[in-house]
Amino acid sequence: MKIKTFHIRLSKEHIISDENRINEFLTDIQVINTFASLVNANKLNFWSIVITYSELPEMKKEKLSYSSETELTEREQEIYDNLKKWRVDKAAVENVPTYVVAHDKELITIAKQNIDKLDDFKNIKGFGKKKIDKYGDDIIALINSV
Fold first, then answer.
1. 90 near 100, Cβ under 8 Å?
2. Among 4, 57, 76, 104, which is disulfide-ready with 111 (CB 3.0 to 4.6 Å)?
3. Same domain, yes or no: 81 and 140
């Protein structure tokens, strides 16, 4: 069980942002109990809210994967072709087969997903932390150059 305290300021310029902050927090937790009290201190009125909670178990999301028969737009095809060339070069430098760097399905999925930040790779089947750390920046740079 964990505890978090929020202050909801009653002034018009703060109430919405304070409410949004608490609402965002509530989306990822299981509330156990709450306690709220109106505080009036030095002409500053606010609600003090204490929430006891537990974290929700992390939901395992299905990762994306497209097959090699997936139709690609013209831009996606260009990204895919450049990714294949990059993969061949990277495999040669590392002295490994190309499939060790990335499978065709992974490259197609990357091309379809318009990856623009490292966090986006977490949704791609075949890309875990090691692969993201090793190749993520290179792939993003390549996509941005197309």
1. no
2. 76
3. yes
103-139 per-position pLDDT tens digit: 999 999 999 887 889 988 888 888 888 999 999 999 9
Q: What is the pTM of this model?
A: 0.57
> Is the CB of residue 85 less than 8 Å from the CB of residue 76?
no
Enclosing domain of residue 114: 74-145
User: Do the beta carbons of residue 70 and residue 47 sit within 8 Å?
Assistant: no
Q: Is 15 within 8 Å of 8 (Cβ atoms)?
A: yes
* Residues 79 and 39 both lie in one domain: no
Sequence-distant (6+) residues with CB within 8 A of 10 are 45, 46, 47
Assess whether 129 and 92 both reside in one domain.
Answer: yes
Q: What angle do CA 105, 88, 126 make, to 5 degrees?
A: 30
**What's the token pair of residue 100?**
């060790």
